[in-house]
Amino acid sequence: MNPLSTRTLNRALLARQFLLERQPIDVPGAIEHLVGMQAQSPTAPYVGLWTRLAGFAPTHLSDLYTKRGVVRIALMRSTIHLVTARDCAALRPLVQPAIDRTTFSAGRRRLLGLDFDELASAGRAIVEEAPVTFTDLGARLAPRWPDIDPAALAYAVRALVPLVQVPPRGLWGAGGPPRHTSIEAWLGRAPARRLVRKGLVLRYLAAFGPASVRDAQMWSGLTGLREVFDRLRPRLRVFRGPDGRELFDFPDAPRPDPDTPAPPRFLPEFDNVLLAHADRARIVADRHRPAIYRNGIIAPTLLLDGFARAICAVKRGRKRATLMIRPLDRITRSDRDAAAEEGLRFLEFAAPETDHDVRFVRSIS
Predict the structure, then answer these.
(1) What Cα–Cα distance (Å) separates residue 54 from each residue in 19, 25, 48, 257?
(2) Contact 310, 364 (CB under 8 A)
(3) Angle 285-291-294 from CA coordinates, rounded to 5°
(4) In a domain? residue 93
(5) What is d(CA 34, CA 31) in angstroms, rounded to the nearest whole number?
(6) Which end of the chain, C or N, has fewer beta carbons within 10 A?
(7) What's the pLDDT tens digit per position in 105-153?
(8) pLDDT digits (tens, 9 = 90+) for 279-329
């Protein structure tokens, strides 16, 4: 087995994530290639697409939301993802075991004795009458199950009935609490596209490989993928990672030279590139992890030479937007200049109505 260095894994990941060079492809094609985009933050997918696609504008995604071409739904790791309409019903059944485990393992005591079929039917009727918030959903379910926490009831419905968050949540420049309805109510019917675990693993490798079984399980939230990888082994190439672990990949997948230049790239909070592997050294050095992964929050980051080397925040005033960049270690003058140029381009996208400034700071409060 050929060993792969950390830099080789880094460049392979960047190439497949469209982070070496912005790609001239459409938004649905990009989202499907990436197997969805992490979307707890409504604006994060916009930033993630801007940093990956040539000529991306916010309307390219907002229009897809309003035309129901994309949806926000709980998927991998039971977290909210942006996916295309045709992908949402294909992916949800595959990751349902992870959603059930997250929902019911910790909260099962609160739901003892509950008839889940009855709860699913009641919850579906409410959300399909009109989209509702979880607070409203729990309040409307509570009279029927007065001994159970309303929030637990609503969260259980989220697992039992595939729910999508409807606009204006997710629209650029819009706000409001997340309101939910079922896939079927929002799309008219559940899309018929089918996917099995083998297909899910292959799509994961295309977007995030080379990767180990453990990496794929971390990304998806699923267990028991070793058998899937073993069945796929004859059609895949097997490498060794820096830690000696087996890494699987397509034989002809892009694995650029480790010295391939990598331009500065800004990633939004919760970007999947920072979450999709058990071993994240290919994108985040161990010494930088505490600054990036904090109390369940994954900070917006700046990639320099392909690695997360700074955390970022945009401070907005009435007339000026300032991009604050906090380096996590010493960076060269040329890297600072390149990051500042990319930062000004980012502010032109994120805050076109204001003046712009980029500052390197010691802390971001």
Answers:
(1) 11, 8, 12, 23
(2) no
(3) 115
(4) yes
(5) 5
(6) C
(7) 765 667 777 899 999 999 999 999 999 999 999 999 999 999 899 999 9
(8) 999 999 999 999 999 988 999 999 999 999 999 999 998 899 999 999 999
Count other Cβ atoms within 10 Å, centred on residue 365: 6
Q: How many angstroms separate the CA atoms of 180 and 162, rounded?
A: 10
Neighbour count for residue 295 (Cβ, 10 Å)? 4
Q: What is the pLDDT of residues 29-82, one digit of tens each?
A: 999 999 999 999 999 999 999 999 999 999 999 999 999 999 999 999 999 999
Return the structure tokens found at 361: 């700071």
Q: Is residue 340 part of a domain?
A: yes
pLDDT at 104 over 60: yes
Question: What's the number of domains the chain is made of?
Answer: 1
Domain that holds residue 23: 18-196+260-365
Question: How far, in Å, CA of 202 to CA of 186, rounded?
Answer: 29
> Does any domain span residue 223?
no
* 147/149 Cα distance (integer angstroms): 7
Indicate the SS3 state at residue 219. helix
Q: Is 321 helix (H, G, I), strand (E, B) or coil?
A: strand
Instruction: Please give the single-letter amino acid code of residue 306.
Output: G
Helices (H), 67-133: 85-107, 116-129
- Note whether 166 and 181 are within 8 A (CB): yes
> 146-204, pLDDT tens digit by residue?
989 999 999 999 999 999 999 999 999 887 899 999 999 999 876 566 789 999 999 99
Closest of 17, 92, 44 to residue 273, by C-alpha = 17
Residue 230: CB atoms within 10 A of its CB come to 10
